[in-house]
Every structure is written in structure tokens, then in C-alpha cells.
């Protein structure tokens, strides 16, 4: 399945990689600081913010690559129309839930901005900044689910089967 939003998913994935690398750099700075007797104020908080940003921003790209852990036990046993209908149902539920989470994550970031909510750590970071990455990542996941839902409803084909991609097993 080709995607109109592939550039968006790739941009979010690249941004997620940047945040994961920043997490590593902060952690290394904290470790080196312990040996050199200096402390980075709020370093642990920033490592947490960057890790959360990397995790949420990677959701859409991960879904599009088929790397999310999926419950395929039932789907593998179904064939034909029943399988497509169960997939449509699952994608509809996932799209609705992701829309709900996206709305409230955006509302949380907006409320934190309006009320000047800041971190309780020594860094006193405005919380809307790290919360915004959560809202953007969830929005990307919503777009990915919605796009896949529309595709399956229109074509009655599963995108992973069409490309010959099998479900990954852990």
C-alpha cells in the first residue's frame, strides 16, 4: 500500500531517532558528570522528556512498517470476508481510540500552556513543551490508523497481505 503521508511518517520517525539520540547523550553526560564531580540540573528530567518524545513520535512510522505487536492469533485463523471484517472492526476501534487519546493529549498540552504548568524539578521546564511531542506523536498514529482503515474499507484487501509481508512474530 502506497501512502500519501509517507513523508509525514518518515519525518516523525527521524525526529524520534533524534530524541532517542539526545536521550543517550544526556545519559552519557550524567554518567560522565558523576565521575567528574559535576551535575547537570534537570538532566534526568530531560532524559525522560526525550525518551517519551522519541517513543510517541515513533508510533506512526512503526505502525506503517508493521512493527507494532499485533494480536494476530484470531486473524491468522480467519480467511476471506470474515478476516477483512474483523480487520475493519479492529482498525475502526483503533482509529477512534487514537482520536480520543490525541484530543486529550492536545488538550493536556494546551492546558499546561494556558496555566503555565512547569516541572517540579530544578529545571522548571514548561510542561507543554514535552507534552506537545506526545500529542504530535499520537496525531501521527491517528493519521496512520485512519489511512489504513480507509484503505481496507475501500479495497477490502489487507495492506500487509498485498505487499506479501507476513506478521512479525516475537
From TrEMBL:
Part of the tripartite ATP-independent periplasmic (TRAP) transport system. Residues 28-154 form the Tripartite ATP-independent periplasmic transporters DctQ component domain. InterPro entries: DctQ, TRAP_DctQ. This is TRAP transporter small permease protein. It is a multi-pass membrane protein. One of its GO terms (biological process) is C4-dicarboxylate transport. The chain crosses the membrane at residues 12-33, 45-63, 84-103, 132-153. The complex comprises the extracytoplasmic solute receptor protein and the two transmembrane proteins. The keyword Transmembrane helix applies. It comes from the Bacteria. The keyword rRNA processing does not apply. GO terms for cellular component: plasma membrane. Keywords: Cell inner membrane, Cell membrane, Membrane, Transmembrane, Transmembrane helix, Transport. It comes from Cupriavidus cauae. Belongs to the TRAP transporter small permease family. It is found in: Cell inner membrane. GO terms for molecular function: transmembrane transporter activity.
Amino acid at each position: 500500500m502506497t501512502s500519501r503521508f509517507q513523508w509525514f511518517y518518515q519525518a516523525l520517525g527521524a525526529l524520534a531517532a533524534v530524541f532517542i539520540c539526545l536521550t543517550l547523550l544526556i545519559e552519557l553526560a550524567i554518567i560522565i558528570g558523576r565521575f567528574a564531580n559535576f551535575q547537570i540540573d534537570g538532566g534526568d528530567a530531560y532524559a525522560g522528556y526525550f525518551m517519551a518524545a522519541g517513543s510517541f513520535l515513533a508510533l506512526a512510522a512503526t505502525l506503517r512498517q508493521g512493527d507494532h505487536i499485533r494480536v494476530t492469533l484470531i486473524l491468522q485463523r480467519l480467511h476471506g470476508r470474515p478476516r477483512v471484517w474483523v480487520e475493519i472492526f479492529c482498525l475502526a476501534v483503533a482509529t477512534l481510540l487514537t482520536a480520543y487519546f490525541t484530543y486529550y493529549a492536545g488538550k493536556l498540552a494546551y492546558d499546561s500552556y494556558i496555566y503555565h504548568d512547569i516541572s517540579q524539578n530544578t529545571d522548571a521546564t514548561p510542561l507543554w513543551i514535552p507534552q506537545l511531542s506526545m500529542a504530535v506523536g499520537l496525531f501521527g498514529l491517528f493519521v496512520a490508523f485512519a489511512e489504513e482503515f480507509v484503505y481496507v474499507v475501500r479495497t477490502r484487501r489487507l495492506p500487509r497481505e498485498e505487499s506479501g509481508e507476513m506478521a512479525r512474530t516475537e
